[in-house]
Amino acid sequence: MIYRNYPMVSKVVFGRGSFSQLSDIIAPKRLNVKAPFIYLVDDVFKGNLKLTSRISLAYDDELIFISANEEPKTSQVDALVEQIILKHKDKPSGIIGIGGGTVLDLAKAVAIMLTNTGESKDYQGWDLVKQPAIYHVGVPTISGTGSEVSRTTVLTGPEKKLGINSDYTPFDQVVLDPELTNGVPKNQWFYTGMDCFIHCVESLNGTYLNAFSQSYGEKAYDLCKEIFYDNSGTAEELQDKLMMASWHGGMSIAYSQVGVAHAMSYGLGYLLGVKHGIGNCIVFNHLEEFYPKDVVLFKKMVQLHDIEIPEGICANLEDYQFDIMIDVALSLEPLWENAIGENWKKTITRERLKALYQKM
Amino acid sequence: MIYRNYPMVSKVVFGRGSFSQLSDIIAPKRLNVKAPFIYLVDDVFKGNLKLTSRISLAYDDELIFISANEEPKTSQVDALVEQIILKHKDKPSGIIGIGGGTVLDLAKAVAIMLTNTGESKDYQGWDLVKQPAIYHVGVPTISGTGSEVSRTTVLTGPEKKLGINSDYTPFDQVVLDPELTNGVPKNQWFYTGMDCFIHCVESLNGTYLNAFSQSYGEKAYDLCKEIFYDNSGTAEELQDKLMMASWHGGMSIAYSQVGVAHAMSYGLGYLLGVKHGIGNCIVFNHLEEFYPKDVVLFKKMVQLHDIEIPEGICANLEDYQFDIMIDVALSLEPLWENAIGENWKKTITRERLKALYQKM
Fold first, then answer.
1. Considering only alpha carbons, which residue of chain B is nearest residue A174?
2. Which of A5, A212, A219 is opposite residue B25, by nearest beta carbon?
3. Domain span including residue B331
4. What is the spatial distance between Cα B147 and Cα B127, in angstroms, rounded to a whole number?
5. Residues in chain B whose beta carbon is closer than 8 A to a beta carbon of chain A?
6. In terms of domains, do A223 and A296 share one?
């Protein structure tokens, strides 16, 4: 058995208000005055001076607002890279992503594609990246995705929804400032938090489980329960805890794998553009047969917070569309192997997946 | 408030038998045939072919056995560095520490001192290291110290027992192979495991606590309880869990601080050469007034495993010797500030520490 050699985030700051340290932290990384820092910022912060006034642009530094309404695409990465190369004489000193999973994944992918030739779709897969990325920093503003700690950046390409998994993908620096998650809309808070919860469920119930993943997964699972079920603590404490849950949940799947919900959610995302967090919830809601105890707990949490999980989104789909989703889901072989075991193909049939999608 | 920017271990492998991957992992780091890998190996493995046969020495690579009977010293670091420089034409490609906290700390310190001028005692303190260390790898063979994940290397110098705390101290690579902890003598297993338990107690009860440290500390604390109190799981599962407890316990104090037991244990170590793990146990045994609930739990675990905690080691000391220990303990101001709060000097008097030492 060959074990993974997992690359960790190089440096991490944690604390309420720590975002104010960002400028000082990155200053020594400036290569020269023509090599700018490029900030990719979720456009929900447009006009939010509390955040933007703390980003100090010097020389040719640039702030680019990014809409996170859609899942990140390879075409979007390539366009951003082209825009940056055309505008600036030197390669950037660093890419700083400030936002949720979408913006963080874009920041990681842009940092990689600034030093690797060709198109980003060519790097979707495992260990295809050849050159170290540009210095890149992640600042999550919503908790749950685990993107801040992972070695992947999940992109929707022309042919597949798949991550750029590589040793060069993880951030060189992460700033965990739970204060930045103030004001996240309730539904989004819940859907993204459930991304973390589902990471833990899929890791802890998977065949790839080991003591490393288990210890991180159990902690993140317990934190999710404290936050979404027990609801114990002040608003600030719950924000702090959820940011740590996301971190530990990310580390848990780093050393194991996700499972059924993620595989099927990727299908929904690819075909219908359903965002990852809500997609996971839509799928998980119907996975009693795979994760009985945790689907019950999930439904209780949905009820407690009065969240609406969309239903019937597959009601009017045609057969060829189900086939597309099923193809995407089945292509994610490690996820099924983790969830079901080596012989997963015996029980995970196209018909079974179609029947599940039809319920959603 | 300025938050710490914590440097993490760059890469980590976890798994039973993962030690066999070491050669493949470090191979790409060889600078040239004259730049050897230097293995510092705990001398308990002398003649243990199960371990040494898996270390493949090529070119000028060298294996140096290290006695861990005493706490690591600055003089020992300087002697090792001199020995390596005199023997080899080029600077090493890497230093690989295989052992417990003593050997791991030596490996970190040697890697630093191969690129930084002067003596290692000049670097005891915080952020005094100027040059990046040589590539260094940590392979723990006993669990609990957290040295594998920390940014310090605690050394006894001519004037003080204090760590070389720096961003260059953490390992570039860690191999967590719980199988290597087979055969650790029971007392040592307990004392070193309690080092982890005490890290958690001191972190979780400290004024520096934050959600980052808390999440790691709670997980490591729970794992210690599972291992030493509930005793639940197979021998292999308990080894796996203890290795993760050590890792998480190390991360917990990374972002907070230790407390009373460590401060006083450093005094014992400096004056009497008491090893760190057992020293912590000797001290913690008498700290009911600071950590009431956890000292009770500690005593139960001592009893359950039929461990003898030495007593009376200070019985015949003279006043000037108590003064030395008290000086060392009181010099560790951040530990007291964490344990007691800003105004710790009001309650932590020389008399109080002397009375405590006299009980030990």
1. B5
2. A5
3. 186-358
4. 17
5. 1-15, 17-18, 21, 25, 167, 173, 176, 178, 210-212, 214-216, 218-219, 223, 237, 240-241, 243-245, 248, 255
6. yes
Q: Does any domain span residue A4?
A: no
How confident is the model over B172-230, as pLDDT tens digits? 999 999 999 999 999 999 999 999 999 999 999 999 999 999 999 999 999 999 999 99
Residue B300's Cβ-side half-sphere holds a number of Cα atoms within 13 Å equal to 13
Domain count, chain A: 2
The last residue of a domain, from among B116, B148, B181: B181
* Beta pairing partners, B173: B11, B137
Task: Give the domain-ending residue among B181, B215, B237.
Answer: B181
| 3-state DSSP helix/strand/coil % of chain A, to nearest 5 | 50, 10, 35
pTM over 0.95: yes
List CB contacts (< 8 A) between A3 and chain B: 13-15, 18, 21
Same domain for A141 and A229?
A: no
ipTM: 0.96
CATH for A58:
3.40.50.1970
Q: Are A244 and B215 inside 8 Å of each other by CB? A: yes
Q: Which chain B residues are Cβ-neighbours of A176 within 8 angstroms?
A: 212
Q: How many other CB atoms sit within 10 Å of the CB of residue A226?
A: 17
The verdict on residue B2 lying in a domain is no
**Does B175 lie in the same domain as B211?**
no
Give chain A positions within 8 Å (CB) of B6: 11-13
- Classify residue A318 as exposed, middle or buried by CB count within 10 Å of its CB (0-12, 13-18, 19+): exposed
Whichever domain contains B232, its CATH number is: 1.20.1090.10
Q: How near does any CA of chain A get to the CA of B222, in Å?
A: 10
Q: What is the pLDDT of residues B224-274, one digit of tens each?
A: 999 999 998 999 999 999 999 999 999 999 999 999 999 999 999 999 999
Largest CA distance in chain B: 60
Look at residue A232 in the predicted model and tell me its pLDDT: 87
Could you tell me if B193 and B98 lie in one domain? no
